[in-house]
Amino acid sequence: MWSRLMNRKKLKDAIQSRVATFGGWTSIGHPQLTELIVRSSVDFVGIDLEHSTISQEQAQRIIAACHAHGTSCIPRVAGHNSESIRRLLDSGADGMLVPTVETPQQVEKLVEWVKYPPVGRRGYGVASAQGYGHDFERYTKTWNETSVLLIQVESIAAVENIDGLLQFDDVDGVMIGPYDLSGSLGVPGQIDSELVQSASQRVVESCKRHHKACGTHIVDPSNESIQSALDIGYTFMALASDVFILQKWGQETKRLLSQFR
Question: What SS3 class is residue 97?
């Protein structure tokens, strides 16, 4: 349990310091895939519960697989639901990534659900996160200072409110959702559009001013794509995902097999 705390604190410190931080990403609910991902020496693993069929029980197993290999785990919850967030946290998640955040009022609610009193109103349960009671005191005393809260900016409304979203000390950073952002700007799927790039840069600059982390998802990681993201001003990034890796394999295999048919 002590190692979990130290790993969580290390991740929190890196994110808050805007040190380059890299994550794996899973959308397939099997801990064996997670074990393969953490062997890559990523700093954290994100679980996508928003765009997958991963259940609460599967998420807990994935979180346990991360911790078994000394890696922190930050699920992306499906929506703004206090029950889902609290259950994931009690399952051992080291923080939370929340999609579609647009207003300061939503951020206030998220802080309330994620943090213990006096900062928030998270309930004092006894579950995997607290070592089923064996680590209750240390966990609850250190949680507010070591847990990670990241919000996703995915609409032009969020971009326009970005300074208000980043005014909260308990928000550690922002992850931009370029596809949803492109949709809100009237150019769905055109993530390289000048409109999307300009809006994203506005978020990056706001994060710099507020000294908050700013993240993105790189579908096809390479030296060039990672360096480009760092040059733009991104400080943390999710690299590919189990789905993207398998999709790429499928495309390459289809091309290969077409030569023999």
Answer: strand
51 is catalytic: yes
pLDDT in tens, 190-232: 988 999 999 999 999 999 999 999 999 998 999 999 999 999 9
| Joined tokens for residue 119 | 């900062």
Predicted TM-score of the model (pTM): 0.95
Nearest Cα to Cα of residue 214 among 194, 195, 233: 233
| Options 30, 51, 69, 211, the catalytic residue | 51
Contacts of 197 (CB under 8 A, 6+ apart): none
3-state SS class at 16:
helix
Q: What integer pLDDT is reported at residue 191 of this predicted model?
A: 87
Asked if the bond preceding 75 is cis, omega within 30° of 0, the reply is: no
Q: Is the pLDDT of residue 2 over 80?
A: no
**CATH architecture for residues 2-258:** Alpha-Beta Barrel (3.20)
